[in-house]
Batch of 2 targets.
Target 1
Amino acid sequence: MLKTAATLTFMLVAFPVAAQSVDGTVTKVDEAQSKLTITHGPIKNLEMDGMTMVFKAGDPAMLKGIKAGDKIKFDADRVNGQITVTKLKKGK
């Protein structure tokens, strides 16, 4: 039993929570800076509550066709110390 608990503890520490898609609403797009402001729900892999904040776009091309008011699903993670949108899908 102790060995199983130790293994589970190791796995929780060694393998952090993977990025999960989060619902959000874009409030601002800054293509020149490759940033977007999103009102979003909790982001579990970043241990972040829901809020409105500015994110760096992992790929500036993902901002094309996105505007304030758009509903989105996105993944975010820390990339080179910055909280970055790594995946973005426009909602309907």
Target 2
Amino acid sequence: MRTLLSLVAIALLAVVALMYFGIINIDQTRAGAIQTPKFEADVAKVRLGTETKTVAVPTISVDKPGTAADNGQVPAN
């Protein structure tokens, strides 16, 4: 690992030295431009609205012990 790192460092130094003496010249020929990507999505359409409906709701009655409806009998299941 140390040998590989040493070879990369030597190659990097050689490239820097060649650029310094003008043997290697790197020019940017075209200006870099960052373009934002364009996305299109085909999604379902959702429509919101209201409507009036009559809904049957069950009624529940609870007879507590000690009320007038309590006549001492055990409720049947």
